[in-house]
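Figure 2 data, in text form.
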Amino acid sequence: MDINILSEKIHHTLSTLRYGENPAELYEPIRYIMALGGKRIRPLLVLLSARMFDEDIDKALLPAAAVEVFHNFTLMHDDIMDKAPLRRGRQTVHEKWNANTAILSGDVMLVRAYQLLLHVEPDRLSRVIERFSETAAQVCEGQQLDMNFEQRLQVGIQEYIHMITLKTAVLLGFSLELGAILQGAPEADAGHLRAFGDNIGIAFQLRDDLLDVYGDKAKFGKQVGGDILSDKKTFLMLTALEQANQQQLQTITGWRDKTDETVAAEKVQAITAMYDELGIREQTEQQIELYFQRALQHLDAVQRPEENKVALRNLALQLMERDS
């Protein structure tokens, strides 16, 4: 069963979910954001992990759907906090409806995620609910740290890594852990898969930071240099701040808070040139490779035949080599 078939199973399962009907203003936004698509990486990770231990992955479909519903709930609320106008090229829910509706619809999505997890076999349900709840709280912690960092002039690189671990990586790790738990995998294997996902998640976010500056605009799908324009504290910026000489620091501070479109291209060019002087691109690529190799070490430690790991290994490689 290849990844395309697994993706089709996920798409079919998500298309059959029923969230509710009345009042329509509560449920239509849920159907709207779930229909926007996306890579569906998290439910795919659940199924790939589950299949490593048992070819029968049908019982993992609804729990996998729960992870995707939860993920989209976080996106709906994040968009409100970020005042984002677009999600996947379409209006965000709070723009199409309003913030209050988006908050309430998101709340229902969280409830539905828990309901979908009730399809887990009874002897594994408690562990799944406990781990899901811990992960959900960590995602919220990561979002709060991200907002805290916006108000701080100084943020450490390790603080940033901790933030993206919580905000992005732990849900990937939980997805893999969930698949293993559902199939009765040994606890050690489930732990290694969680660590594999955590490290892939960190590398994935660092790749996103890199693409925002050095990506191909036609492939990246959003404005290249957007993080620079918004003075976002990414791994690239924090590394530059740590290593910059006095003149380079003046370049950074001189452009800070200049977000006017008339100087946008000049600002991106100036900061990117400074990154080039410091070798920030190469350093970021080294960090991506470091976390990717850590991830593979955990995958290697899973006590399953190598052929059972090939699809997951290949997917991880695709995520690391992506240019969009």
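Caption note: The first strand starts at residue 86 and ends at 87.
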